[in-house]
Amino acid sequence: MFEKEFIKDHQYIIATDEVGRGPLAGPVVTCAVGVRVDNLAVLASILKEYGVTDSKKLSLKKMERILEELNISTFKKQNFRDLFEYSVEKITPKKIDEVNIFQASLLGMKKSCHNILKQDSVVLVDGKFPFKSTKVKDVHAVIKGDSKSVLIGLASIIAKVFRDRLMIKEARKFPYYGFEKNAGYPTAAHRKAIEEYGITPIHRKTFKGVKEFVQE
């Protein structure tokens, strides 16, 4: 089991991932999944049985089925069979513009982890860089962690489904941009809509493809 190599005398392990670094609109969404080390093997077995892996390798339908099996539908912090808990955070486009998308992603993952942090925790962060925290000492960056760790994989799935549903709601407010289909990513139709209708309050004003249309 991949996660075991990071566990020393820890009692709790948390894994976190982000979704939405590339879009021109909408928040970046992060999720942290936490489990007691004693329950890790059982949970990992269940997640593998359900097909949990990197969200980029799964269809939305498959991800929603996995979350349905795990009784995750409202995205409120809760337990599954008392095995794990999770927390979702979203960093607004305004904050992304203030601090940049890299820092916004780290901030969101840190917030998600802090929400479920326990004593004696070790944290796995998907990507090349860990966040810095005064509340937890053992924070490890895991490159391509969403493919290596089922915990990071689950975090990526929860964040992805949460964000996609959020962007579907935004599409009702801003119907010309196809957010229900592109989730804010820079598709040709999305770029054309920006040229024709301008930008919305949820567009990232510092991103190329948006900043050119910001009205001072």
Automatic annotation (TrEMBL):
Recorded GO MF terms: RNA-DNA hybrid ribonuclease activity
InterPro entries, per the entry: RNase_HII, RNase_HII/HIII, RNase_HII/HIII_dom, RNaseH-like_sf, RNaseH_sf
Range of residues in the leader sequence: none
Top EC class for this record: hydrolase
Keyword Metal-binding: yes
EC number: 3.1.26.4
PROSITE patterns: RNASE_H_2 (PS51975)
Keyword annotations: Cytoplasm, Endonuclease, Hydrolase, Manganese, Metal-binding, Nuclease
Catalytically driven reaction(s): Endonucleolytic cleavage to 5'-phosphomonoester
Annotated RNase H type-2 domain residues: 11-216
Annotated CDD domains: RNase_HII_bacteria_HII_like
KW Hydrolase (keyword) present: yes
Cofactor(s) of this protein: Mn(2+); Mg(2+)
Annotated function: Endonuclease that specifically degrades the RNA of RNA-DNA hybrids.
Family: Belongs to the RNase HII family. RnhC subfamily.
Protein name: Ribonuclease HII
Annotated organism of origin: Halobacteriovorax vibrionivorans
Gene expressing this chain: rnhB
